[in-house]
What we know:
The chain is an alpha/beta fold.
Amino acid sequence: xxxxRIDLADPDSSFEAVVQAGGFDILVNNAGVLHDISLLDxxxxxxxxxxxxxxxxLDLIRLNLPRWRQTGWxxxxxxxxxxxxHAEGLGGPGAYGVAKAALNALTRALPRxxxxxxxxxxxxxxxxxxxxxxxxxPLTPEEGxxxxxxxxxxxxxxxxxxxxxxxxxxPW
Length: 172
Ligand SMILES: NC(=O)c1ccc[n+]([C@@H]2O[C@H](COP(=O)([O-])OP(=O)(O)OC[C@H]3O[C@@H](n4cnc5c(N)ncnc54)[C@H](OP(=O)(O)O)[C@@H]3O)[C@@H](O)[C@H]2O)c1
């Protein structure tokens, strides 16, 4: 198994590893950053949030395109959040919800440009006991991973361009 550490906040640092690997069948855009700093604060995390949760996922999708065009099969899973849903009020501190809403927008827009056989979906994992979610969150990491893994392995007749929680579609 190959392992490469990449810094998604640095657009120049990272993507040699993907190219060298020849791309991946399944791309799970899981990395996230959440800081409790007002959008109006000069120290706002807006740039970092947009880089890690929007620009880097799009870069990674572009880098995988040659493989997906060749094989005709690909799955993209974007780890979003209810805090990125207009339908749930764009909650969350600082730039987090804005970036997740932009990731959702990418998820809706990309199907028209992706090659046939490549599906892209977003999901909210729920409130999960990770470093971000904290120890009091009700879901284990395994439970939080259920919907992303399901989306990563969707069959040919599965959804694309959707937003899911607990394997069910939810409003944007
Ligand atoms: N936990 C929840 O309740 C919850 C709820 C809704 C949505 N989500 C979403 O689920 C996803 C996973 O969250 P989590 O709970 O596992 O968060 P987490 O415990 O804070 O982990 C975040 C992950 O993102 C990686 N990451 C952050 N900045 C990065 C960068 N610049 N380059 C590369 N990797 C970077 C971290 O890598 P390092 O370990 O190397 O720092 C870590 O693996 C996120 O997109 C999050 O927004 C989580």
